[in-house]
């Protein structure tokens, strides 16, 4: 009888750990999405439209830090037209959480975007916090369905 109580007590202590354990698919998804986030930022800088067409879902909602929203076609066109220009994107923090057995992921992080210089020649930097939702489509792979960003104050040194 005492053995049953001990086993029951151990199981009771292990329940919180088991409840938060990630599946193998979730762990794999985290690694995939981390790599894809970096690849997407690089594609935005290099204007690699093949990658951008693939990684953005057809129903993308892209909300810029100024509140303006674009769909997939509008956003990619804004890069083509030079309205969205990126000289460099530095990832400062990147946190990925996977859900639904590795079929969905929520990403949050901070980036610094180097934009073309201001008219007076001074550097033009944007510090952003952002949230991304990615869904794993069985045929298309991981795709961004939502982007939301917020400007952060400039860090004075």
UniProtKB/TrEMBL annotation:
It comes from the Bacteria. Transmembrane segments: none annotated. SUPFAM superfamilies: NTF2-like. Residues 1-21 form the signal peptide. This is DUF4440 domain-containing protein. Keywords: Signal. Residues 33-144 form the DUF4440 domain.
């Amino acid at each position: 009888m005492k053995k049953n109580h001990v086993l029951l007590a151990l199981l009771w202590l292990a329940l919180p750990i088991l409840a938060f354990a990630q599946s193998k698919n979730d762990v794999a998804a985290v690694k995939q999405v981390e790599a894809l986030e970096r690849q997407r930022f690089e594609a935005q800088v290099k204007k690699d439209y093949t990658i951008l067409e693939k990684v953005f879902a057809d129903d993308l909602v892209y909300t810029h830090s100024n509140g303006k929203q674009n769909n997939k076609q509008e956003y990619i066109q804004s890069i083509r037209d030079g309205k969205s220009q990126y000289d460099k994107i530095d990832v400062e923090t990147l946190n990925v959480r996977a859900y639904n057995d590795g079929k969905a992921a929520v990403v949050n992080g901070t980036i610094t975007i180097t934009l073309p210089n201001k008219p007076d020649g001074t550097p033009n930097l944007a510090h952003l916090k952002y949230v991304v939702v990615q869904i794993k489509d069985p045929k298309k792979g991981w795709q961004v369905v939502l982007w939301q960003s917020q400007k952060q104050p400039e860090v004075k040194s």
